[in-house]
Write a structure and sequence with these properties.
homodimer; TIM Barrel; 2 domains; eight-stranded parallel beta barrel; two-stranded antiparallel sheet; about 10% strand
Chain lengths: ~450, ~450
């Protein structure tokens, strides 16, 4: 049965010149894109103008000399997003903050501030920091995977609890009488958990959307469980429709077990769009020309425990690696090996294909639009986050070429609502104390 | 010997409606000033237009139902200042962050981000969080006073070390060759101290002013020593010229012992200015009318270990309190007692005088200008931070009535330089590795 078309939601990932590791060399982007204020402001304005729903800022807490260009030198997400509150009006502002290396009281305040500064447009992408090196920047032990997710679960609980410190109508602010607030509507949290002890109250009120939207990005089993239990939306990295559907099913199951609506799913995409297939191929080849063989092989090695691929003939067949690659990147390494065998790729071809996949979103505007619709119709996505490969080009192509097709098909229209919850159709979380009071009053009324 | 006039530097404290506890009731300010984005944007633009040097955001990490209105509900400083980067161009952006309840890696990143987003206008007001209640929001013990300052000293060292991670010319960004950076100009900090272990490097480059300016606000002996050893500027609360001079002398002594130039001194001021003295008095009486006797007595009690002053006849003489008040507010409590005796004040008068002192900056524009000049000439200040009592009124009065007098006397002109260091005449901190390399090269040259 064909579903009724629903508006596809769209985010834009602000990450340097774009998701492609050498996007900074593209002739149309500033070489310092990852720390270029004007670049981000312009993208933010363009995205809002085009009607996109939110901006999304990723993050990382550890670099070394091998890190990708846009990781080496970038703005901290909260600072960047706060700076964009003044140049935008309706677009959401979501940013990544780690629950493994921060304090819930401070993070609750900073996000609530962003939410109030933006008039209800803040989102928090909860991550647990996978890189063990992060720990060395914070003088702590790196918690193991499962524990990181337990910490994250409790952390979100604390932050959402602090966000309930002030009821909606707690501030009276009557100039005449001098009454500033109602002390009955100010609440301490008094949280005492396994990982956190936080008294509260928080020193900032609710925003136009009540509380910031919670994003989550973990694809592991623990990540899916956390998302199902706590998130309003998830950012995923699915490369194929099948992968995306599998993830959606798992998330749905876990949400059902947690007694919640499943969060909206937002796969990151790197479309390469040309008026014709030949034009798309031309763009693809131009991007490949920005990447040296050495870089492509080095990048490939990252997925295979930093294996040195430069020892092989690049134009020979993809080498037999045996067990190598059975690590945390296994879904990628399996795919690389399978593709190399099936399509008889040389090492050079496999390396370039890994560094810059063509993927499902390569082709003409019509093809890309069809794919976006198919993913949504098949229940694999509520929307997408545009990650690159090169941000300004991808945003222009989507806006100019793809959105008109989606609009004609009923999957797109300009939504001028201004809180992030409204745009993503996520209900406001009522304040827990207000809710309890209103339940009590209802009970009293029905007892009469 | 008369000194040559030097430009007086001016900051504006963004703190709700202003430093006066009931400023929110003033008919010319929005009742929600402390979380009103438009209010802050407008003050920021007006201050920049008037040629002020910086905005300054205070902070606190603990509230309860007794807290002052502008503390109960306010923006976190980093978020607020970042949001102001987009609506200002030249004015400095300084904010308070506690070294007792945060991580140096995150704080270094956020401040460096603010500095880069604002093109070299960031300042950090280092505080150690006096309120023990803060600890309960972070699930830790509250370090005792001396230890807090030791932690702060090491913390600043770590942050400044992280800010040196990338040398000035580390980023090559050659589109043609594909070389993004020079790995020789990227440095790990590898700090292992008593309180912090931080590896680095930081994932963000230097700004137009190299590193953010360090403010410090502690007036205790430990505070003065920390300021002398680490700060570029200090924010003080001196009420009289004598107090300010005494502080300046102590700071100078400590700076000399630390082998540094003494930091610039910025007393916070709450001027009440009228075209005539009668007009100033009228303003003062209007402000007093916004404060109930109950609030004034309660406020007075805060300095005397929450003593209940409502038990006395408000129109009787100031009560004999014996030892009460020999606490950490002693300089205030001594002054209250002395003034009450000397001027034969009733309790009511003493309470109102404490909640809203007239102070040294009460009077006609000519008188206030003379006082500002006197403080600077007597070495008690390099400039001032305008704190209230009501921000928009004080800013307008200073701009419209006082600055022209200062200008005519040679103590003021519009400075259009755009980094905070330039405006405050604080030299750029050279990158330690660049400096070491250049010393080595010099030594090699002279050895030839």
């Amino acid at each position: 049965m064909k579903q009724t078309p629903r508006r596809i939601k769209l985010g834009l990932m602000l990450q340097g010149a774009g998701g492609f590791m050498n996007a900074w060399r593209h002739h149309r982007v500033p070489v310092d894109a990852s720390v270029n204020v004007s670049w981000y402001r312009q993208l933010a304005r363009q995205a809002e103008e085009a009607g996109l729903d939110f901006l999304f800022v990723a993050d990382g807490l550890h670099i070394n000399e091998k890190s990708l260009p846009h990781f080496l030198n970038r703005f901290e997400p909260l600072a960047l997003l706060s700076s964009l509150t003044a140049v935008t009006q309706r677009i959401g502002l979501a940013g990544t903050i780690s629950t493994s290396y921060s304090d819930p009281f401070t993070v609750a305040r900073q996000l609530a501030s962003l939410d109030l500064l933006s008039n209800g447009r803040a989102g928090w992408n909860v991550v647990t920091s996978p890189l063990a090196g992060s720990a060395r920047n914070f003088g702590r032990e790196h918690p193991e995977h499962g524990q990181r997710y337990q910490i994250a679960g409790e952390y979100i609980e604390v932050v959402q609890g602090l966000w309930d410190s002030w009821e909606e109508d707690a501030f009276i602010r009557d100039r005449q009488s001098g009454v500033f607030f109602d002390a009955n509507k100010l609440h301490k949290l008094n949280h005492q958990g396994e990982h956190f002890t936080v008294e509260g109250p928080l020193n900032i009120q609710r925003s136009a959307q009540g509380q910031p939207v919670i994003f989550q990005a973990g694809a592991s089993e623990s990540g899916i469980r956390l998302a199902a239990a706590s998130a309003d939306a998830v950012f995923t990295n699915a490369r194929t429709l099948e992968e995306a559907q599998h993830y959606a099913t798992r998330l749905q199951q876990e949400a059902q077990m947690a007694g919640r609506q499943p969060p909206g799913i937002f796969p990151g995409i790197n479309p390469i769009i040309g008026a014709t297939l030949a034009e798309a191929e031309e763009k693809y080849q131009y991007l490949l020309s920005l990447l040296s063989l050495e870089q492509a092989l080095d990048y490939l090695g990252r997925f295979f425990d930093h294996h040195d691929f430069s020892q092989y003939d690049p134009d020979g067949p993809f080498p037999d690696l045996g067990e190598l690659g059975q690590n945390s990147f296994r879904s990628t390494t399996d795919q690389v090996k399978r593709q190399a065998t099936e399509e008889n790729l040389t090492l050079r071809e496999a390396a370039y294909r890994t560094a810059l996949p063509k993927g499902d979103f390569f082709g003409t505007p019509q093809q890309v639009a069809e794919t976006l619709i198919r993913w949504v119709e098949q229940g694999a996505a509520s929307g997408f986050i545009l990650c690159g490969p090169v941000l300004n080009e991808a945003l222009e192509d989507i806006t100019r070429l793809v959105l008109p097709i989606l609009e004609a098909r009923g999957y797109w229209y300009q939504d001028d609502r201004s809180t992030l919850r409204e745009r993503l159709e996520i209900p406001v979380r009522p304040n827990r104390y207000t809710q309890a009071r209103s339940r009590l009053q209802q009970a009293e009324r029905s007892a009469c």
